[in-house]
Structures are given as C-alpha cells and as structure tokens.
Amino acid sequence: MSLANGEETRTRELRIVSGASPREFLTARENLKVRVRPYQPADRPAIRKLCCDTGFLGNPIDSVFRDRDLFADLFTGAYLAYEPEWALVAEVNGRLVGYLLGSVRKDFDQLLMRYGFPIAAKMCFRWVRRRYAAHPRSAGFVRWLLSRGYHEQPKHPADAAHLHLDLDDAYRGRGVARRLWETYEKQLCEAGIDQCYGAFFSHPQRRPEPVYARYGFTEFDRKPTTLFSPELSDVEVVCVRKFLANGANGVNGAH
C-alpha cells in the first residue's frame, strides 16, 4: 500500500528515543553503512515481518489485525510471487531494515485482485469460524476489506510502474528510503519506463507528502480511508506520481 510513511518526519523522534544528542545522531547517520541489493528468496520472512511490524502507520499491525500471515500475504505476496526481479532490500550490518517492492506490469491491478481474492476468502473463513472472536478489531479489519477497502483507494496513473516501500522505524530519516528509491528509479530508467507511482497513508500527525515532493513526486489523487478508525480519524490514502528523466515530459525530480 504505502511508500515509506514519512522517512524524514521521524528524525527528531528517533533522536529523542535513542537518547542521542544532535551531534551524536548526525554522526550515526553519516556513518550508517547501508547496502541496497536485489531481493533473494531468503529475504521473504524478514520482509513479511517488517510489513507487519510497521503496518499501522509505522507501528505493529497487531492492534488492528492480529493475523500476521494473511496481512503479509495481502500487502507483499503479489510482488514477490509475480515480479521478484523488481524487489530491492536495504541492509545494515547484514540485517534487513527496509524494502522496496516494485511492479512494471500494466495488469498489476488485475494481478492484485487475482492474488488477493483467495487471501480475502481465507480471512472470511476464519472470521466465520470465529478465529477472530477474541479480537473484535481483527473482525472489523475483515469487514473493512470486504465492504470499503476497494472504494477507499485513490485513482492512479495508467501504464505507470508501481512501488511499495517500507522501513524499519529506527531507520526512518536516515537516507535509507532515498537509497532504495534511487536504485529503483535507475532500473526503471534503464528499462525505458517513463513514470512511476506509489501510495501511502497520511494524517495530520504524519504527513509524508513533503518527503516525496523532494524526490520529485507530485500528488495524483487522495481519498479518505476508515481503515484505522476508530483509532485514528482524518487518515487519507495519497497517490503520488513521478515522471522519470527518460519520459516524454522530461521531468527529473531533484534528489
């Protein structure tokens, strides 16, 4: 669903939580050795875990939906099943701290629907069998998915590549998302692809829009979502697009 949920909006919070002074924090950022590389099948468990650990606006998804296996299937499965060659991971000291899952297929929406249908069916089966009886909010998540999920998605550009980017919360605001994006952007340009879009959650306390504006993205559409209600109100799903340097519009966003 999302790009990084505001990579640079968490810099101050990270410094406060870590207890580091501004000078110590900047030194840690400068010395951070990030390795961005292509996805390998052995990365799948770590990607799925990170997806669930950050699924609630950078926080663990468990308070909203406790079925981690199906949540990870829903939000990462199609990318890794159909286009693993467009997936990237970021490592620090051999530990996966971020990922970017991409798609360049024009039938990506159809693939998501085809892949997601049996997952939704499993959720329904478990709901009916009272698998979520001890956690009513999980049942609410299933109801949202079936009744509102599709209608609360913003429009997106046709014939554009797509990305889903996620980071370990401790590495937001430290340049990891930029490294992942720039690697993916280079691959898209080499493949002759002229535009890319992504989507993310935005709410008054967490606005990622300025980060993506700095990457050269512009807003394409937005829609309110009730996915995180009643925990949070005023949440929107925002779709952003970037024309790449080799595209017909010749727009190359500043980095």
Quick one: CATH class?
Answer: Alpha Beta
Widest sheet: strand order?
A: 1-2-3-4-5-7-6
Look up the CATH topology.
Aminopeptidase
Relevant CATH superfamily = Gcn5-related N-acetyltransferase (GNAT)
Please give the radius of gyration in angstroms. Answer: 18 Å
Number of domains: 1
Instruction: Supply the CATH architecture.
Output: 3-Layer(aba) Sandwich
Q: Encode the helix/strand succession as letters.
A: HHEHHEEHHEHEHEE
Extended strand count: 7
Helix and strand arrangement:
Blueprint (H helix, E strand, L loop, with lengths): L10 H8 L3 H10 L2 E5 L5 H10 L14 H15 L5 E5 L2 E9 L4 H21 L7 H12 L13 E7 L8 H15 L4 E8 L6 H6 L3 E7 L11 E8 L12
Parallel strand pairs: 4-5
Antiparallel strand pairs: 1-2, 2-3, 3-4, 5-7, 6-7
Helix pairs in contact: 3-4, 4-5, 5-6
